[in-house]
Amino acid sequence: MEILHTAAALHAYTENCRRAGQRLGLVPTMGALHAGHLQLVQAAAAACDVVVVSIFVNPTQFNNPDDFRLYPRLPEADAALLGPAGCTVLFLPSVEEMYPQPSVLHFDFGPLERVMEGAHRPGHFNGVATVVSKLFHMCRPHQAYFGQKDWQQVAIVRQLVQDLSFDLELVSFPTVREPDGLAMSSRNRRLSTEARAVAPRLYEALEQAAAGVRSGVAPTQVQQQAAAYIMAEPAFTLEYFEVADAQTLQPVEAWEPGRSVVLCLAAHLGGVRLIDNVVVE
Ligand code: PAF
Prior knowledge:
One of its GO terms (molecular function) is ligase activity. The chain is of the alpha/beta class. It has helices spanning about 5-20, 35-45, 65-70, 75-85, 95-100, 115-120, 125-140, 150-165, 195-200, 200-215, 220-230; strands spanning about 1-5, 25-30, 50-55, 90, 145, 170-175, 235-245, 260-270, 270-280.
């Protein structure tokens, strides 16, 4: 596995691969890799000749300086996991390399970003769209891989790819969970033993809510019951629990036949912000 640190080196490498007729897969990450990331790398390796994994804790997508400062950074341990998973190139740029000058461009994804993460983390999707666009230009992948734990992020990147005519296929994979249901996340490493013990309550709330949706319980009631279940454990502060259309991400007020919904939440637990979601077809 090659480790590259500059945009120029990555661009030269991937352009060579393209000229040789190789298919390129890109897995953008912020590191502190877990089984969810490795599933994406393995899928990319099965579908592509060359797999580029980027690890970059992108400062422009953090609206909370402490969250950025405390985000786990484990480049050596990550590198050791990536080779066996099928990664060909690890791209590890510095902040200066990704942002030689502050970015002035601003993305507006309309209603897609006025809800949930976009509403609660001002500027977050602008930072995501900026860095993802840069990575797409530097690497020019045929396919780009994202995890569905960030359901709204996948929707935003899909819009980005469509609106800016990026010539690539977006591939997304379902959330990978711990045996007790907790969604795998790099931030889980920051949970104390006590917090980790109660963290599966989030998925339990989502599963109960999904059962409510399937049996026709009204959306507001589903939302209230889930919020009450989470907040019955005082260690949680619930930021939101939304019942949304799975495509438009707009709140669902009444059930319509054939419509898929996504149940999304964000909660704070022991100083760590966690998100999760479940899709109900
Ligand atoms: O999902 C993430 O880890 C990040 O938002 C991403 C897509 C790598 C952009 O920094």
